[in-house]
Specification:
alpha+beta, PH-domain like, 5-stranded antiparallel β-sheet, 3-stranded antiparallel β-sheet, 3 helices, 8 strands
Length: about 160
C-alpha cells in the first residue's frame, strides 16, 4: 500500500506497507474460529476413543499459529520516505525505525532497475550506495510509487527555477 502526503509546500511523506487481507481484530476472529473447529473435532474424537487425535491437533494448531505469526510479523513492515527540497530520508522497520538513511537531495539520484524476471527495484543512490525500498510491494504499487516519486522530484526541481 502506498500513501503519499504533502506535509508542507516542499515536504513529502510516502508511507509504504505490504498489502494485508487480515488486520486487527479480524486476525483474532479467524484464528479463534480455526481453533474452535479443529479443537472441537479433536475433543469429539478423543471422547469417542481416538485419543491420538488430540496431540496431533495440538501440533497442527501450533504450526498454524507459528505460520500466522510469521506472516503477520512480515505484513507489519513499514517504510517511510521523506522527500524535501534539501534531503531524502528513508526509514525502515516494523513499529519503530530500525534502519535510517538520510542524504542531501542534490547528491542523490532516483534509480529504477528491472530485474531478469521483469520486476522493478526502486532505490535512491548516493555516494555509490543504493538504498532499495518497496521490495514487498506488488508491481502495480511499484509503478504507482515510481510515477509519484518522479512527479515529486519534478515538482521540487521546478520550485528551484
Amino acid at each position: 500500500m502506498v500513501l503519499i502526503e504533502k506535509i508542507k509546500n516542499s515536504n513529502y511523506l510516502i508511507s509504504l506497507s505490504p498489502n494485508s487481507s487480515l488486520v486487527g481484530v479480524y486476525r483474532i476472529i479467524f484464528l479463534a474460529s480455526i481453533t474452535f473447529v479443529c479443537g472441537g473435532i479433536a475433543i469429539t474424537f478423543y471422547f469417542v476413543g481416538a485419543s491420538l487425535i488430540l496431540p496431533f491437533a495440538g501440533i497442527e494448531l501450533t504450526v498454524l499459529f507459528i505460520a500466522f505469526y510469521l506472516s503477520f510479523k512480515w505484513s507489519s513492515k513499514k517504510e517511510k520516505i521523506y522527500i524535501s527540497q534539501e534531503t531524502v530520508k528513508i526509514e525502515k522497520g516494523t513499529n519503530k525505525a530500525e534502519y535510517l538513511w538520510e542524504e542531501f537531495r542534490t547528491f542523490t539520484s532516483f534509480q529504477i532497475k528491472k530485474e531478469k524476471d521483469k520486476t522493478l527495484r526502486l532505490s535512491f543512490k548516493s555516494k555509490g550506495q543504493d538504498v532499495y525500498f518497496g521490495d514487498f510491494l506488488n508491481e502495480d504499487d511499484k509503478n504507482l510509487l515510481k510515477d509519484s516519486i518522479k512527479d515529486i522530484i519534478e515538482e521540487l526541481n521546478a520550485q528551484i527555477n
